[in-house]
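pasting input
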Amino acid sequence: MTRSILLRGGRIVDPSNHVDEHLDLLIADGKVVRIGADLESPEGAHIHPCDGLVVVPGLIDVHVHLREPGGEHKETIETGARAAAAGGFTSICAMPNTDPVIDSPATVGFVAAAGRAAGLSRVYPVGAISLGQRGEQLTEIGELVDAGAVAITDDGRPVMDSGLMRMALEYAQTFGIPVADHPEDLGLSRSGVMNEGLISARLGLQGKPNASEDVHIARDLLVAELTGGHIHLQHVSTRLGVDLIRGAKARGVRVTAEATPHHLLLTDEAVDGYRTDAKMNPPLRTEADRAGVEQGFLDGTLDTLATDHAPHHYDEKEQAFDDAPFGIVGLETAVGLLLTHYLHGGKMNLSTILDRMSVQPARAFGLSGGALGLGAPGDVTVLDLEREWTVDPSTFRSRAKNTPFAGAELRGKAVLTVVGGRVIYEEDRG
Amino acid sequence: MSRTVSSLGKDLVGLEDLSAEQIQAILDTAEPFKEISERRIKKVPVLRGKTIVNLFMEPSTRTRISFEFAEKRLSADTVNIAASGSSVVKGETLVDTARNLEAMRIDMVVIRHGSSGAARFLAERIPSNVINAGDGSHEHPTQALLDFLTIRDHFGRIEGLKVCIVGDILHSRVARSNIFGLLKLGAEVAVCGPMTLLPKGIDALGVRVFQRIEDAIEWADVLNVLRLQLERMKGGFVPSLREYNRFFGVTTPRLQKVGRDLLILHPGPMNRGVEIDSDVADGPHSVILKQVTNGVAVRMAVLYLLAGGAPEQAEAAKREGVG
């Protein structure tokens, strides 16, 4: 049994329970047991003074790549979970595009077990939609769920066969999990390596047009509507894509959708100079698209913030642009970026940020957490909203350092991360 | 050895990075170098003692040989590396290849690479001068410079001329270098080709777009006709070579229709009967072989300037060397 923990003197912000006041919070036996003013410390409790800090439900990232098995030179489940803990995330959902693909109960069980063994942030496996992510035959979805999968996706390899997507959205309903999709029509994106537009024309790089994403978002929404299944659209990057989702939500389609920090904050201008740390899929798009994604994030059309944490070894990014892989890391910068640009930038209040980073992700993927009521799991993140820091990839817990935000000066940081009543990360308060 | 800062900067990666004055200076410097290739003994000591590596990661005949002649006629020591038969096929990365060359104390690298941005990538990582001999679909600056010199030889100017680039603009590094450079020099620039081979956003670069070759011919003073890579057919960009020639080919009947002479350029190698008909390529208004001759002079000028030479001393340097 772990020691109980008393978080004393902080401001508790818990959007699920409409709480925003200075209270103490006591966690024992892995659960929240008391919330109140001036709680007495039980014997042996570990007291964390939280004066000037904000105590919030543990943050959840439903879209990370941990690369294990098969890509351990980029990241492992343990190093990824350590990065999550340092970034304030108490739960993360691991994408199945590993080698081998997570498409069987055994491989799902491996990810879950490795996550438990790491003993850091909770690691939830996400299974593949199709065997080998080949887009041909459904995985044993029921068995994957029994083994611990919380969703299915062929992320990284879009489901090109609309009939297969229909089957997945129908079949998965029995097991109550969402079908997540990386919406991209490969026929339209062809050999594109960045957004198609003025910058790609100038740089002589092949482009992926917005339509390559929009066509598949529209397809997924229509198939979800047909089947009544829950579609979760990953990393939406286009203005029209956001509009399509907004319309579908208004019609009652069961859709949840992600915004990433990089699509909220950067445009394809970041690629100029052939910067491989700005190469990701979907690509960074134009300012009109960035603004559209932001509008969707503000109004809740894009209900979930997800980092699409995609670690790569530096040798792989240190190549000509065409040859470098897609993706950037995000777990250790997301909180700082959101607090700096949305809270301090005056665009979003704290409780809405927490809605997008904890409440909605928990709801979308059916995870415990997202609230701090009595009996809730003791998953808590403590934020210092004023802490000023500079992004220095050499200090990342992640094995990978590939971020376009290196050198960014940020305000706000997670300083204490608690999972099941156990401290898994504590910032040196110097 | 300390390196002299040249009037072009350390490298020649692309014309997008140069000013109109710098481009003019290269063309002006090329003038005195033209004469060297006409001598009986085609050698001057301008780059004596300099070591230059020609790193060609993609097949090339014309550009590689042109650079090599330019280097040798300026007395540089040269080494050629081709992708096949080198450590590249053994899986060595571009960074490692570059660092190993650098460790042998070289002065310049001329690089041809299949990926856009590769020349800049190399230039940012080694202290040697880097000259881009074509990177993916990005730039091929010395090709465009020799095009400009050839146009200037004919018209005596570039400013105010109407130049149309015809063909596969999407995949063409020649097109981009021409567009960037010609606009800086005050020319009007257009592109013409099937929409499948025109990059989206190209008009935002400041060029006019023609979808019919007849309209382009009607408008232009100069046609720069690009090679249609045969693999574009496999990629589905054009249905057939026959159809391409029928609707986009530069042919004598089409040229005759406008009743005035257009200057015809082609960077080579030509697909006769596809993008250009033989009677046009071999006709009186074709300057395709003059381009090749000018290529050597332009490349000499670039090598000389990057080595720290001054444009106004090029004439004297032909006798003295850069030092």
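fyi The two ends of chain B are 12 Å apart (CA to CA).
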